[in-house]
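Build the 3D complex.
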Amino acid sequence: MEYLFEAKNIVKQYAAHRALDDVSIEVPKGSIFGLLGPNGAGKTSLIRIINQITAPDEGSLIFDGEKLQPHHIEHIGYLPEERGLYKKMEVGEQAMYLARLKGLSKSEAKQALKKWFTAFEIEGWWNRKVEELSKGMAQKVQFIVTILHKPKLLIFDEPFSGFDPINTNLIKAEIKKLQEEGATIIFSTHRMESVEELCDHIALINNSKKILGGEINSIRNQFKQNLFEIQFKDSVNGLELPEGFLEKSSTHNTVQVQIPEQESPNQLLALALKSGEVVGFNEILPTVNDIFIQAVEQKNQS
Amino acid sequence: MNRIFLIIQREYLSRVKKKSFLIMTFVGPILMAALFVVPALLANQDSEQEHVLVLDKSTMFLSALEENSKVIFTYLPDDTSLDSAKEMVDGKKNYALLYIPMSETGSMAFLEENIQLYTKKQPSLGITGNLRRQMEKEIQRRKLAAKGIDFEMIDSVKSDIDLSTLILGEDGNEKEGSAERSMGLGFIGGLLIYMFIFIYGVQVMRGVIEEKTNRIVEVIISSIKPFQLMLGKIIGIAAVGLTQFLLWVILTIALVSVVQMAFLPDPMDTAEIANGAGQTMQLSESQETARDIMDGIQAINFPLIIGMFLFYFLGGYLLYSSLFAAVGSAVDGEADTQQFMMPITIPLILSFVVGSSIIDNPDGPLAFWFSIIPLTSPIVMMIRIPFGVPVPELLLSMSLLVLGFLGTTWLAARIYRVGILMYGKKVNYAELLKWIRYKG
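Done.
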């Protein structure tokens, strides 16, 4: 697989605290990559290293086949968790300033900004002060300046914290579009459920260490427990299960059953059909949250 | 480089475009001009003459009191009673009553203790001093006469030395010097540097705090190194300071010359009129002072002083503003800056406090050390320069200042790069030390 970005064996030490301990990640080209883990795990430290805000103590960084260098910032767009704007500046002036800091010329910046301001329906705010903007509009401006210079790599740290649902959907759609146009995206968040339907690759970080990483479906398969849910039309009084089959939980019209690895789910379905009218039958795959908890437990045991 | 320029540009324009900058630009020179012009105007103004009634029972002072710019005397007949004389004092037309009693024995000691002045309100020191001097002189004259000494003789041997200072230059020419002028100039230079460091240093600190509290700093440093952001801010604000200073100089010169044209006649014109009239015309006292000041200003080495002012202003500003930036980066809001401001403001205030002893002894050890140490040298050296400072000493002080600001900038940058990304943490000095030691 071709990687846009690779971090190898990164170590970052802050006095007595080790923020990153031998962390490696590989971000495939064109993927949406989830950097997941609880608060304080080291996600932001890693992201700041990718953005060259801080330097790692050990390890190497590769961007698009080259060693990561200062000029690469022109190909990276970064929306930090702590984000804001100069309150006293005019919106357009502010957006121009941030775009030009990313290396765009005056005319390029102006042209691209006009296009995005129109698309996001905030063109009337160009000459207003930032402090007059509503929070949602300020977020749109921040998003625009992050992606304006058409970066190859987009990094969003806690992207949806503080966004209202309408903006969240708008931005999710824009991110999908950017991916289709060829951009690679890294999401970093502790709210794993918020990005799991978007991500195709993930890395789980806990206590400064990477505990798991790879393609999300293969990870899910790796952690699946052969758990199936049967949904009946009417309520049922339990199933007579053969040996090795385990009823996990049930409501008045659903039953979840774990079947032994060598058995086929058809056997369970046949059993169910005899017990009542079946309206649904599907496999329960673990959520990223479940996987994370299991992975942490496994790590602690070993 | 291009990016630093963008930062400088924003920092500069966003401040210069503010209303407060415009207001300060116009109010500053008016205050400065007022500082120079108002005392001159006040000195120029004649104070009113006061009428003083004199009831001289002793008849000794009848011809001795002379009217002058402060007082006019009206003698009452010496048979007027004290009470009716007192009633005549109204505080307006008749300002006061000077009562000189009759001495039974004719003793001067009795007079010295019993002369009284009656007024409606507390008289000014100018008037009481004037009266006392005139009467002391008369009593002295009489005492001397009693001993057979002629007062006019004493008067003729009195002398008044006008000590003019001439400074010998290297090339043999002589320059008129004046300790008072050097003192004034040094003091003004020092004060200006002190003000500029404070005003613009605090602006740097506010700017850093603003970026931190607005949470924009991380967005920016993903495009530019923290050090470049800090440097761009410091340089941009220095440019604001220099712009303001330049505008002040231009406006002050314009204002002062307008005022001069309006109130003080041009010495050339006066001389011509005097010649034309074919008679010596005496310049009024204030006009003479004005000419003195003008002559004195021409004797000052302005290129050196202005050049040194710019150097020490920039050097001092760079040294302190990077420290101010470090303080701004370490705190979450302006309220938390107190504990870190202390060690920065102490050397600044100290250099001002020792300023007066340095004016007394501009070449002493105190002056030497304070003008060499980079933390105090910008202000103290500025005070010393008008008195003349040996070139090697000046060069030492200047190079140490350059080293000083490189040092503080390095130190500040190491605190800054960690501080700007640190939110909601109460920071102390131990923490700052830790930050300085962080790698990368």
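DSSP finds eight helices and 14 strands in chain A.
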